[in-house]
TrEMBL record:
Segments crossing the lipid bilayer: 6-32
Top-level taxon in the UniProt lineage: Eukaryota
Gene3D superfamilies named in the record: Vaccinia Virus protein VP39
Keywords of the record: Membrane, Transmembrane, Transmembrane helix
UniProt entry tagged with the keyword Membrane: yes
Protein name: Methyltransferase domain-containing protein
């Protein structure tokens, strides 16, 4: 992740501007391809809009996060449950339909996903049940600014008022690190700030490994 000093405060604003630019692009695409059902409700349009935006923006920004993410995911082994982004319409209980039983997963990985799920505490608690003893949870998630009374924390809280509307429900101020640490008993917990993130980063990360 780049460290741009105080210019880091501009990153969320630029992200919102780029997201807005994809509104007419998405609308035109849906009309041209006669996908009218996706513009009948705000929810369906927002998913189509963010999906198109993130398809481009996600790949374009991948190089910024790849080195840190790859280091974490290198620890994956055995039965791996990679929790990714999606429509949000499936539950953890469906894992058993696919033959995955509680206490049988060697590795769970979450990368930029827990910021967006509607019931993070419920999801994290359920996933913990599927992790076997000695299993590893690999984490790379953006979190609430740690310095509670700092300028960056105030800026993050202000931007987060509108941020979820442009990033499909993503919350910048979710305390994901505490949520993970208190989701169950861990024999080892090594979560830390991502390297090279400055004081003015309004999208700081927690990165590391939890061992059950």
């Amino acid at each position: 992740m780049l460290n741009l000093s105080i210019l880091d405060l501009l990153v969320p604003i630029l992200g919102i501007i780029l997201s807005i630019l994809y509104v007419p692009v998405t609308l035109l695409t849906l009309l041209v391809h006669r996908r009218f059902s996706e513009i009948t409700t705000w929810r369906s349009f927002r998913q189509a809009w963010f999906g198109r935006f993130w398809y481009c923006f996600g790949w374009a920004s991948r190089a910024l996060f790849a080195p840190d993410v790859e280091k974490v995911l290198a620890g994956a082994h055995g039965v791996v449950l990679d929790i990714g982004t999606g429509s949000g319409d499936w539950g953890v209980d469906e894992l058993e339909r696919w033959g995955v039983k509680p206490g049988t997963v060697d590795t769970i990985s979450t990368v930029h996903v827990l910021c967006s799920v509607q019931s993070p505490a419920l999801l994290v608690g359920d996933l913990y049940r599927y992790l076997k003893l000695g299993g590893r949870w690999l984490v790379y998630e953006h979190v609430k600014v740690r310095r509670k009374w700092s300028l960056t924390a105030g800026f993050q809280a202000m931007i987060n008022i509108v941020w979820p509307y442009f990033f499909d429900g993503c919350s910048m101020t979710r305390e994901t690190e505490d949520l993970l640490l208190h989701s169950g008993k861990w024999t080892s917990a090594d979560l830390r700030p991502a390297p090279n993130e400055g004081w003015f980063n309004a999208l700081p990360h927690t990165v590391g490994v939890l061992v059950k």
